[in-house]
Amino acid sequence: MYDLSTYDENIEEYMSKNEISDEPYIFHFPDGNATIARLLVRKMIPNSIAGSTMEDIVTAKADYSQLDLSGQRVNIRLDSTVISAKNTNDGVEVIYVKQGKLYKVSGKKCILACYNGIIPNLCPDLPKKNRKRL
Hints:
By secondary structure, the protein is an alpha+beta fold. The protein has two domains: 1-74, no CATH class; 77-134, no CATH class.
């Protein structure tokens, strides 16, 4: 904070609210929401990105080899395009394309982290009311 008593009485007109407020500084990420995604990945797959703070995530290097290992609770498959996701009795079945080949995997849960307008095409069994909400 600044000691405003040492400045011209009109100085407050030229200062931002953050400069004259008693509120603490709120951290800003230089790469925007990409840092939020990196924090989520680090939480789900701890060995993928070193560190433990909001500050160190900004410069931490990702170890992409850790994202898709068998036996993990969460897998992130890069460079893969999902073409179908269907609910099953045991969870979900996902069909995707990687390097021109089709693959089918199953899991208990699936997160479609994509443009929501495409979801009705990926999930043909999606109830009509849910389609409208997208």
